[in-house]
TrEMBL record:
InterPro entries cross-referenced by the UniProt entry: Aminotrans_II_pyridoxalP_BS, Aminotransferase_I/II_large, HistidinolP_aminotransfase, PyrdxlP-dep_Trfase, PyrdxlP-dep_Trfase_major, PyrdxlP-dep_Trfase_small
Protein name as annotated: Histidinol-phosphate aminotransferase
Higher taxonomy: Bacteria, Pseudomonadati, Pseudomonadota, Alphaproteobacteria, Hyphomicrobiales
Organism from which the protein derives: Fulvimarina manganoxydans
This protein's UniProt keywords: Aminotransferase, Pyridoxal phosphate, Transferase
NCBIfam families found in the cross-reference section: PRK08153.1 (NF006014)
Cofactor(s) needed for function: pyridoxal 5'-phosphate
Record family assignment: Belongs to the class-II pyridoxal-phosphate-dependent aminotransferase family. Histidinol-phosphate aminotransferase subfamily.
Superkingdom of the source species: Bacteria
């Protein structure tokens, strides 16, 4: 008899995500610039660092399973109450909890083909099935087509990312309203707002805009510069939020993570400065791409997708040549996104290293 579930044994691989450390081991040398995971090289608030150090001294003790201080601080920022919020081990951890809470093996979820791949990983690992809707010709998630598909498939979960990874594009708050109006009530709408802090105001509905089937996800991994700490949160109506409490890992959000996130929320100045630096870096990346005759996509995030204008084979060759020159970037997956590379904002020095690597790569490949 198999000790592990046959369904799990049949899954394609242990982990679909090849992070920069794994890539460095494969390439046999460290990266000079790390611009492939949409992290913030500008780092966490010094207040968060010091709070995490203090918490480390107390790390013999479990953190607060109710996360009350953190949930209170988040709810104040959002104009909600703590029962509208649950925090977890990044958006990824919470999305995993959601699949467990919402889906039975065999259930369906709908997502965009080439969107943030962690969605697929969770659903597949849980024995669910995915239905994919291609991106639009404008390289944005095709929300009308996703809604139309949801009406037919009646999935348990519909995944939307706003602003989007890997394209950086966004829809406005009116488009969110159209989704809420038209998606069947029994479908949970995941609105992944990981990049909200960088987004134009028009992209974001009021934080108090909730619905029984709407779950909005945010993270400390991007603008707060704390990807390695693993803290994110989801907000929604209390009944939906309460379902997470039944399945989540109760001590999963560490004492250090809770203390760090709480302190980070008290440092608006650091957040503002990071967002400003990111905006400047985004502009620099776009200009650099244009100067080489390439097309940067408009971005409401901390990265820029650059359309290389040919096909996936060409983009893959350019990507590999950039990686070999010591700069970690990524390529979005499926057509029509396969002609692009995706570059996270870094320091001006990082961006200069990328520019140099891209020059060399284009020379080699063209
Ligand atoms: N959602 C999207 C759309 C992302 O791009 C990312 C980060 N790559 C995440 C979620 C993961 O966020 P976290 O670090 O909070 O798990």
């Amino acid at each position: 008899a198999e000790r592990f579930s046959p369904r799990v044994r049949a899954l394609p691989s242990t982990i679909p995500f090849v992070g920069p450390e794994a890539l460095e081991r494969r390439l046999g040398r460290p990266f000079k610039a790390r611009l492939g995971a949409n992290e913030s090289v500008f780092g966490p608030s010094p207040k968060a660092v010091s709070a995490m150090a203090d918490a480390a001294a107390l790390s013999w003790a479990y953190g607060d399973a109710e996360q009350l201080d953190l949930r209170q601080a988040i709810s104040q920022k959002l104009g909600l109450t703590p029962d509208h919020i649950v925090a977890g081990e990044g958006i990824d951890g919470l999305l995993r909890d959601l699949v467990q809470a919402a889906m039975e093996p065999g259930d369906m979820a709908v997502t965009s083909l080439g969107a943030y791949p962690t969605f697929n990983y969770h659903v597949t690992a849980h024995g669910g099935a995915l239905d994919f809707v291609p991106y639009g010709e404008d390289f944005r998630q095709d929300w009308p087509a996703l809604v139309a598909r949801a009406k037919v498939v009646r999935p348990k979960i519909l995944y939307l990312t706003n602003p989007d990874n890997p394209t950086g594009s966004w829809h406005d708050a009116k488009a969110v309203e159209a989704v809420l109006r038209d998606v069947p009530e029994e479908t949970l709408i995941v609105l992944d707002e990981a990049y909200a802090d960088f987004a134009p105001a028009e992209a974001l509905p009021e934080t108090t805009r909730l619905a029984p089937n709407l779950l909005r996800f945010r993270t400390f991994s991007k603008a707060y510069g704390m990807a390695g700490v693993r803290v994110g949160f989801v907000f929604g109506e209390p009944d939906a939020i309460a379902q997470f409490g039944k399945v989540r890992n109760h001590f999963g959000l560490s004492r250090m993570a809770q203390a760090g996130a709480l302190a980070a929320l008290s440092d608006d100045d650091h957040l503002r400065k990071t967002v400003e630096k990111v905006a400047a870096g985004r502009k620099a990346l776009a200009e650099l791409a244009r100067a080489k005759g390439l097309v940067p996509l408009a971005s409401g995030t901390n990265f820029v997708a650059i359309d290389l204008g040919r096909d996936g084979t060409y983009a893959r060759a350019v990507l590999d040549a950039v990686l070999r020159r010591g700069v970690f970037i990524r390529m979005p997956g499926a057509a029509p996104l396969d002609r692009m590379i995706r570059v996270s904002v870094g320091t001006p020095a990082d961006i200069a290293l990328f520019a140099e690597a891209l020059d060399g790569a284009l020379e080699e490949v063209n």
